[in-house]
Design goal:
Elements: H1 3-34, H2 60-69, H3 72-79, H4 91-103
Length: 107
């Protein structure tokens, strides 16, 4: 193959890849703007029963709810920049992962 043809094909390939990358980035940004953090304690509920066998880490959902209601989750997302694209996770999801692991005696 002639070098001029190879150069033209390489240039076309670069333009196509650049266009696809831009389209994917816009799609991811649109999804991230619509979605919130993945760790969502909205469905957490606690019940007491006479014959309860719970786990020692049952308060983790309550801690997540506390972090969300005090504005900690939003503050983390607003001030910390770790990710280029937020699909599906946000910065607060990563930070709260470390926090929850520490609360559950993880190493």
């Amino acid at each position: 193959m002639k070098t001029s043809i190879a150069r033209r094909l390489a240039c076309r390939k670069r333009r196509i890849l650049k266009r696809l990358a831009r389209a994917n980035r816009e799609k991811y940004e649109r999804c991230a703007a619509e979605a919130g953090p993945v760790f969502d304690p909205a469905g957490v509920k606690y019940e007491l029963a006479e014959k309860t066998r719970g786990i020692a880490y049952g308060g983790v959902g309550l801690m997540m709810k506390l972090a969300q209601e005090t504005g900690l989750v939003e503050a983390i997302d607003r001030r910390l920049r770790l990710l280029k694209m937020h699909v599906p996770y946000h910065e607060s999801d990563h930070v709260m992962n470390f926090v929850l692991n520490a609360l559950c005696d993880a190493t």
